[in-house]
Design brief:
Distance between the termini: 68 Å
Strand order of the largest sheet: 2-6-7-10-1-11-12-13-14
Number of helices: 15
Strand content: 15-25%
Shape: elongated
Number of domains: 3
Radius of gyration: 29 Å
Largest sheet: 9 strands, mixed
Number of strands: 16
Structural class: alpha+beta
Length: 482
């Protein structure tokens, strides 16, 4: 018997998002990723005695922007608090965070799965500083003999977004996270580069008997940084908890870590409660008062959000699938929109963008924004195909050359003499030669075997090195054989 026949999953997610500022939350150190260890640090972010923090205003701007995009209420009065705990990556032995008066509360995100459309509540979103990074000698902390600390990440501004425990299945969790990350990308609150740790997920999950009202005992698995890891973690952890319950045991409320290589969660420590952190107001920072005019100024900077863009694409006549592919990657959607300005056949354009162009991007592990090929060049290529200057088949080759070199399509067509042959006299001579060389195919066509025309068109296209106008070639063949 599957555990789903006896239990229901209850899940909430804490998402830690690095905000897209150039400097840290309380000092002027760089937030750039990838610097040499312990070089983006200063006495403030290292917690030296006597230093005082100064709040980065852009952190507040981005927090407000994210809150508005997530349908949150923006607090007129909020404050920072000290979250006290000891860990090697926390040089001050406390984290400056927000506790009882966060900047954003009571939001929601709408998700869509195969089963239903559903709102997932956002309990709160609050600002805080990131901790440093432990560099382990082994694959995980559990298998390491020693660990080193890199404090470059210490003080990088975070927005922690806490969902309600509203998700009841793995697809719902993934839909929520995908929608959340899309919103953060579209608002440019964060670059959301999960491979660099810009977004990290803490998964809180429990099981309860089907039909029960209360929640089961939950575990929290920390610092997952990909949707794939979240899916695998949930599948493992729910199965593990079900086995414990089915065996008559009780799930322990604890913090766990995810072992990517083994595909399992491992116990780290007993789960802390709020009182364990001994929160108290940060004495070195004044409370934050946010006027309505400040909030409204930020509201005017909100872009078209994913749900709005998806609806616009559907109104253009795109399919649900194509709209979804575009919206899922903001750089690709931006590329499509810019190309659409110069080539307004949306359905034709989307087939090329989500087909051959996306294939090239994936093969080279690039986003559309990183490609040497501009949307304007792409639109020019579409125009050349639409006008019959080149065929679609040759267009694919031109696209690959454009992608590699960044050259304009018209220049590539000229340099390689790829222009389509549409002169009837030239094509008629080749058609006559092909018909004379393949009398059996002619007889087959006249006998009603329609497939024969395809063979003959192929012979003509080969003779023209792919440059014959396919529609014209087809018409000339038929006229000659009827």
């Amino acid at each position: 018997m599957a555990w789903q026949d006896r239990y229901e999953m209850v899940c909430g997610v804490e998402t830690h998002v690095e905000l897209a500022t150039k400097t840290k939350i309380f000092c002027g150190c760089s937030t750039e990723f990838g610097g040499e260890q312990n070089t983006h640090v200063c006495p403030v972010c290292l917690g030296m005695p006597g230093v005082l923090p100064v709040l980065n205003r852009e952190v507040v701007n981005l927090a407000i922007k994210a809150g508005l995009a997530l349908n949150c209420e923006i607090a007129e009065f909020s404050k920072f608090d000290r979250k006290n705990y000891y860990y090697p990556d926390l040089p001050k032995n406390y984290q400056t965070s927000q506790y009882d008066l966060p900047i954003c509360t009571k939001g929601w995100v709408t998700i869509e799965t195969e089963e239903r459309v559903k709102k997932i509540g956002i309990t709160r979103a609050h600002m805080e500083e990131d901790a440093g990074k432990l560099v382990h000698s082994g694959e995980t902390i559990m298998s390491s003999d020693e660990s080193y600390v890199d404090y470059n990440r210490t003080g990088v501004p975070l927005l922690e977004i806490v969902s309600e425990p509203d998700m009841r299945s793995v697809p719902e969790v993934l839909a929520y996270l995908e929608q959340l990350v899309q919103i953060l990308q579209y608002t440019e609150v964060s670059d959301c580069r999960m491979e660099q740790g810009s977004v990290r997920f803490d998964i809180n999950v429990s099981l309860r008997r089907l039909g029960a009202d209360g929640f089961g005992i939950r575990t929290e698995t920390k610092n997952l940084n990909s949707f794939s890891s979240v899916r695998r973690c949930l599948e493992y952890e729910t199965e593990r908890q079900a086995q414990v319950l089915n065996g008559g045991g009780q799930v322990i409320q604890e913090t766990r870590t995810w072992d990517e290589g083994k595909g399992i969660t491992l116990a780290l420590r007993t789960k802390e409660e709020a009182h364990d952190y001994r929160y108290f107001p940060e004495p070195d920072l004044v409370p934050l008062v946010i006027g309505r005019d400040w909030v409204e100024r930020i509201r005017t900077t909100l872009p078209e959000l994913p749900a709005e863009r998806r609806l616009r694409y559907l109104e253009l006549g795109l399919s649900e699938y194509d709209a979804g592919v575009l919206v899922a990657a903001k750089p690709l959607a931006d590329f499509f929109d810019r190309a659409l300005i110069r080539f307004d056949q949306a359905k034709v354009l989307v087939n090329w963008v989500t087909g051959d162009f996306l294939r090239l991007l994936n093969a080279n592990q690039q986003s559309a924004a990183e490609s040497r090929l501009s949307p304007e060049q792409f639109a020019e290529l579409m125009g050349l195909i639409d006008q019959g200057v080149i065929s679609g088949k040759i267009g694919k080759n031109v696209l690959e050359e454009m992608y590699l070199t960044g050259k304009d399509p018209s220049l590539i067509v000229k340099e390689k003499n790829l222009a389509q042959i549409s002169d009837e006299g030239t094509l008629l001579r080749i058609v006559d030669e092909v018909l004379a060389a393949h009398p059996q195919s002619v007889e087959d066509f006249r006998a009603g075997k329609e497939k024969a025309i395809g063979f003959l068109v192929g012979r003509v296209m080969k003779a023209t090195k792919g440059q014959g106008n396919p529609g014209l070639v087809n018409r000339l063949l038929r006229e000659k054989m009827t």
